[in-house]
C-alpha cells in the first residue's frame, strides 16, 4: 500500500482506531508518523476555541505531538494520558492499552537498586 493510500485510509478511521493502531508493535515508524500527522490535522481543524481556549505559547498541535510521542515511547504520565484523552476524545483505557511497546514497567524506574 502506498503512503498516499494509507493516508486516505486514516481519514476514514476514528481517533480511537488511530490510537489503537499506534499501539501495534508491528506498525512501521512511517505509519506511526502518518497517524500522528492525521491526529494533529484533526486537532488543528477543531479550532482553538474547541481545543481548550486560545491561550498563548504552543498550540494544541505541538502538545499533541509531544503527548503522542510519549505515548509511543511508553513514558507518558497518567496526567498526560488524561490530557491526551480530552484532546482526542478517546477513552483513557484505550490510551493505556496503546501505551508504549516496552517491557513490564515504565522505563527509567528501578535502574538503581541497592545502595
TrEMBL record:
Q: Which intervals of the chain are annotated as region Disordered?
A: 42-65, 93-115
Bias (Gly residues) occurs at: 101-115
Protein known as: Uncharacterized protein
Report the source organism. Answer: Pseudoduganella armeniaca
Supply the source organism's classification: Bacteria, Pseudomonadati, Pseudomonadota, Betaproteobacteria, Burkholderiales
Amino acid at each position: 500500500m502506498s503512503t498516499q493510500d494509507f493516508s486516505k485510509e486514516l481519514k476514514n478511521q476514528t481517533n480511537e482506531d488511530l490510537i489503537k493502531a499506534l499501539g501495534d508493535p508491528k506498525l512501521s515508524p512511517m505509519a506511526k508518523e502518518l497517524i500522528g500527522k492525521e491526529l494533529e490535522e484533526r486537532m488543528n481543524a477543531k479550532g482553538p476555541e474547541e481545543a481548550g481556549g486560545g491561550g498563548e505559547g504552543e498550540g494544541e498541535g505541538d502538545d499533541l505531538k509531544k503527548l503522542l510521542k510519549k505515548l509511543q515511547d511508553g513514558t507518558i504520565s497518567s496526567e498526560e494520558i488524561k490530557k491526551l484523552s480530552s484532546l482526542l476524545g478517546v477513552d483513557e483505557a484505550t490510551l493505556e492499552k496503546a501505551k508504549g511497546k516496552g517491557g513490564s514497567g515504565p522505563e527509567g524506574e528501578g535502574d538503581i537498586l541497592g545502595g
